[in-house]
Amino acid sequence: MITLYGSGPNFGLPDASPFVTKVETLLRMSKLPFEKALMSFSKAPKGKIPYIEDDGRLLGDSTLIRWHIEKKYEIDFDRGLTAEQRAVAWAFEKMAEDNLYWASVYFRWMVEANFRKGPVNFFRSVPAPVRPVVVSMIRRRLRKTLHGQGLGRHSRDEITAIGIRSIDAMAGYLGEKPFFMGNEPAGIDATMFAFAISAICPLFDSDLQRAASGHANLRHYIGRMAARFYPELSEIAGCTAVA
Ligand SMILES: N[C@@H](CCC(=O)N[C@@H](CS)C(=O)NCC(=O)O)C(=O)O
């Protein structure tokens, strides 16, 4: 049995982390039995979430986990796709994970009103007297990471413009197709779904959120993915599940 470690459902999303949701969606697509558990960063092989335990082996990183599942359980999440489609899928996934993700991090963690509505709650278990120190230390570290990644060097308007370009690209490529690559879901849908719900999450106020939710096809896609892979939820990120 595979155990998926994440931070748990939060913000109206299956998990606060889109990378965890990506893996959870892949596992749901695979139909393999799995359970979810709360993570501990000290046990995470890469110091990040998600990580999984499979037959006593811990494995981190959503892409490496995907490859592990594909190899060990002989599943090709991209079956039926051409080499060109696989290339496009990889490029879109990395756009979401390595660029759009950081815009979402900025809006969640660096915009004070959003931070107070969301991430601040991660620190509830920290004893009250030291909490402000821990919170500002973690936020300072994240600001440095954003600076190192590059997006953090930009103004809010510039980050918004770059993030919106990614959202528009996702919506533009999806078009009127039911799933990202056509009539059936592929591996890329786990990633697009996870990062689309992260951007569209109505809890966090930003022009990026408004741009994402302005794409009706993206909202309907989220609803379709939710209906197919999260049938126990009637809605995700404010998008109603519809088959
Ligand atoms: N490349 C990793 C990225 C995972 C990642 O960035 N996870 C974030 C949560 S969304 C995390 O654990 N951050 C903690 C940290 O960087 O210390 C993957 O695909 O799994």
- CATH class group of the domain at 1-75: Alpha Beta
Nearest-angstrom radius of gyration?
18 Å
Mean pLDDT: 97
General shape: globular
Q: Strand-residue fraction?
A: 5-15%
**SSE order in H/E notation?**
EHEEEHHHHHHHHEE
Sheet with the most strands: spatial strand order: 2-1-3-4
CATH architecture of the domain at 1-75: 3-Layer(aba) Sandwich
Low-confidence parts lasting 5 or more residues at pLDDT below 50?
none
Distinct compounds present: glutathione
Secondary structural class = alpha+beta
Largest sheet: 4 strands, mixed
Task: Specify the number of helices.
Answer: 9
Query: CATH homologous superfamily of the domain at 1-75?
Result: Glutaredoxin
* Gap between N and C termini: 29 Å
Topology, number of strands = 6
CATH topology group of the domain at 1-75:
Glutaredoxin
Relative helix content: 40-55%
Q: Which secondary structure elements does this structure contain, and how are they paired or packed?
A:
Layout: E1 2-6, H1 18-30, E2 34-38, E3 51-54, E4 57-60, H2 62-72, H3 83-109, H4 112-117, H5 131-149, H6 156-174, H7 187-200, H8 207-213, H9 216-229, E5 235-236, E6 239-240
Parallel strand pairs: 1-2
Antiparallel strand pairs: 1-3, 3-4, 5-6
Helix pairs in contact: 1-2, 1-7, 3-5, 3-6, 3-7, 6-8, 7-9
The structure holds glutathione.
